[in-house]
Write a structure and sequence with these properties.
transmembrane, transmembrane helix, membrane, elongated, mainly alpha
Length: about 160
């Protein structure tokens, strides 16, 4: 214990590098991040629920010309739901313990942008001529999720 008192502030910061956010506004920031994370999770659940409970309609909205079976779409939906739960609970653990927040928030930004890019590719390949109001709604939900996760990342980085 005596050696700990002789460490400088920089040395303590280096030893506690896993502790991500150490501002005086941590409680307020933690609430904002939790709220955004919760809303992003709800948006993911809305999209997945639509894919599960109405796979034929979702298939026609997104893949207008494809004759793919709806079983594949439901499997994809369950996979996305599992990944959403996993990311949500890992993020909650990191937020609760103030550990590895920067890494997890960066991973979230990468994941959300990758999903957005995959959605955009489907719309570009399918052609925007059949771009419906429902497809626009799903795209707006994805953009809103991008905003929420990116705002969390920027708040953590400050």
């Amino acid at each position: 214990m005596y050696a700990m008192n002789n460490l400088s502030e920089e040395e303590m910061d280096a030893l506690l590098s896993f502790e991500e956010v150490n501002t005086s506004d941590w409680i307020r920031l933690k609430r904002k991040i939790f709220f955004r994370l919760w809303v992003a999770f709800v948006l993911t659940c809305i999209r997945v629920a639509y894919m599960i409970y109405s796979p034929q309609t979702y298939s026609m909205i997104v893949y207008q010309n494809a004759d793919s079976g709806t079983d594949d779409l439901v499997t994809l939906a369950y996979g996305r739901l599992f990944l959403g739960f996993l990311f949500f609970f890992v993020s909650l653990y990191a937020l609760k313990n103030n550990l590895y927040l920067r890494s997890i928030s960066m991973a979230g930004v990468v994941i959300v942008f990758a999903l957005f890019w995959s959605d955009l590719q489907v719309y570009i390949i399918g052609g925007f001529s059949q771009f419906t109001a429902e497809a626009l709604t799903f795209l707006i939900l994805r953009l809103w999720m991008i905003y929420l996760i990116t705002a969390n990342y920027f708040d953590i980085r400050r």
